[in-house]
């Protein structure tokens, strides 16, 4: 085990338990002066060297463990529009319709992109984990156990230059998209500053090679053993880490 790897199997200080983030310093209160400039709402914020650059931003794709075998067999995550019948489909017919009719500036529908979230505790995962009562989830999602899902973790760098950043649910009417690096960097900075990363999505067109997945996060030792069996059978050496906080309500 390396010096930067925690007991849960994470590297590069990924684990918030073993490598807790320092509390932000309290700003010093100063008297208001006439020379102080107020930020205009919506204007770009100053960048912070403490934040990872765009390329190093981790992204997360959640799937049920029963779907993982097919992903490994083909060697790639595939957009919903290309999947006829997932073994366990968590999306309701309404969600399928919305993502099949909403489109990006490219003219292609959202369901032709593989979605990733910017944070593990995304609103979509929170709903799914906590019972999937909302209309966007299927009956199968409501009966599934959160501990039977897995997190597939990579970075925007691995997704490549064609990745598209959405500042909310990609199928929502008011969601904005960023495709070039400068626009994505600005949008990501604003999302972080306003703490609005929970709904944001990163989209990759068509498919994404599984060998670019850097980590599979699971809820238990039992799930880790099952995932390792699947990875070995498909000749993937992807790291598997048990991290219960991602799966606990």
TrEMBL record:
User: Which stretches of sequence are listed as region Disordered?
Assistant: 26-48
Q: Which domain of life is it from?
A: Bacteria
A Pfam family per the record: DarT
Reactions performed catalytically:
a thymidine in DNA + NAD(+) = an N-(ADP-alpha-D-ribosyl)-thymidine in DNA + nicotinamide + H(+)
Q: Where is the active site?
A: 99, 201
The portions of this protein that span the membrane are none
Q: What is this protein called?
A: DarT domain-containing protein
Can you name the source organism? Rhodoglobus aureus
């Amino acid at each position: 085990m390396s010096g930067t790897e925690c007991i849960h199997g994470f590297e590069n200080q990924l684990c918030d338990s073993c490598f807790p983030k320092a509390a932000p310093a309290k700003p010093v209160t100063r008297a208001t002066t006439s020379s102080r400039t107020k930020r205009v709402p919506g204007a770009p914020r100053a960048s912070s060297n403490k934040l990872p650059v765009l390329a190093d931003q981790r992204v997360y794709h959640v799937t049920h463990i029963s779907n993982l075998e097919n992903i490994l067999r083909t060697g790639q995550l595939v957009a919903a529009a290309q999947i006829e019948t997932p073994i366990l489909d968590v999306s309701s017919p309404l969600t399928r319709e919305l993502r099949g009719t909403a489109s990006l500036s490219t003219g292609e529908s959202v369901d032709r992109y593989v979605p990733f979230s910017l944070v593990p505790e995304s609103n979509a995962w929170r709903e799914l984990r906590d019972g999937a009562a909302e209309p966007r989830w299927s009956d199968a999602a409501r009966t599934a156990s959160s501990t039977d899902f897995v997190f597939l973790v990579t970075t925007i760098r691995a997704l490549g230059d064609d990745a598209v950043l959405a500042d909310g649910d990609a199928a929502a009417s008011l969601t904005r998209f960023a495709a070039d690096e400068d626009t994505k960097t600005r949008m990501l900075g604003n999302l972080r500053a306003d703490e609005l990363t929970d709904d944001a999505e990163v989209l990759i067109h068509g498919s994404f090679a599984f060998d670019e997945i850097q980590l599979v996060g699971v809820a238990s030792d039992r799930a880790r053993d099952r995932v390792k069996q699947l990875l070995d059978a498909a000749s993937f050496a992807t790291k598997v880490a048990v991290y219960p906080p991602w799966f606990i309500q």
